[in-house]
Structures are given as C-alpha cells and as structure tokens.
Amino acid sequence: MVTAAEKVSENGKANGTREVDTICGFCGVGCGLTLKVEDGVIQKVAGQKSNPSSKGEACIKGREGWRHLYSEKRLTKPLIRKDGELVEASWDEALDLVASKMTEIKDEYGDDAFGMFSSSRSNNELNYLAGKFIRQVLGNSNIDSCNRA
Questions:
Q1: What is the C-alpha end-to-end distance of the chain, expressed in Å?
Q2: What is the pLDDT of residues 39-74, one digit of tens each?
Q3: CATH code for the structural domain at 4-70
Q4: For 18, how many CA atoms within 13 A lie in the half-sphere containing its CB?
C-alpha cells in the first residue's frame, strides 16, 4: 500500500480530498469515471452519470481496477535477464534489447516470424497503430483481434 510519505505533495503539504473526472482505460467503450482522491491516493471510483457511454455505470474493472496501482507486485521499472537473473534496467536499455532481439529473429526467420493479437480492451486508435506497426515495421499482416465480427 501507499505510505504516509507518498501521500504528501512535493511541497510537503497534504493534497486534501478532491474528485477527478476521467475516462476508464480498461477498454475502448469510453465510460466516464469519477475518482475520489484523498491525499493523492485514489479511495473510491464511481461511474459518471453525465457520460453518454456509461450513464453512471461502470463494470467491475472500471470500479475496482484502480487497486492494482498500489499493488506491491506491480512492475514499475523494466527488468531484463542477465546471466540468468532478472535485473532492473533503464528504459533505453530494455527497449534496445527488445529491438535487437526482434531484429535477430526477423533476420533469421523472415518477416512472417512475428504476429500480433490486439486486445478487446484496446480503443480504435490503438488498434490502428498496432496494424500500422506490424505492417510497416515488422513487414507482414499477421494481426488479429477478438473484436472482429
């Protein structure tokens, strides 16, 4: 969980309680959520009544998914394997490793070595970018999604 020190703003003062309106990030529906934030920590989430997509409702992921933000198991830094062990790395180091490994695989097995499956949680813009990435960067059209009719 969040420590008392993490509940304090940069100037050393408690942030107080406020409501923050946002859009749920768990899928592409666009449900509106209102977050009750106390001292910088989310305490409760409710559906936004004024949102035309959700009309005040929110699924279990929208209402309860925020709890994962404070999980001790949550990864907050990239990990890469060195000498058989997972060690923390910088984002640049991790992305460079992924890019070099993908290049090795593509060079050895060709353009069709990769495929992509897009999540039903993705919005249209993310699905568009996924398709563009696999076609232009990876050089094939091996993409699918459970969103198709």
A1: 41
A2: 889 999 999 988 888 888 988 888 898 888 888 898
A3: 3.30.200.210
A4: 8
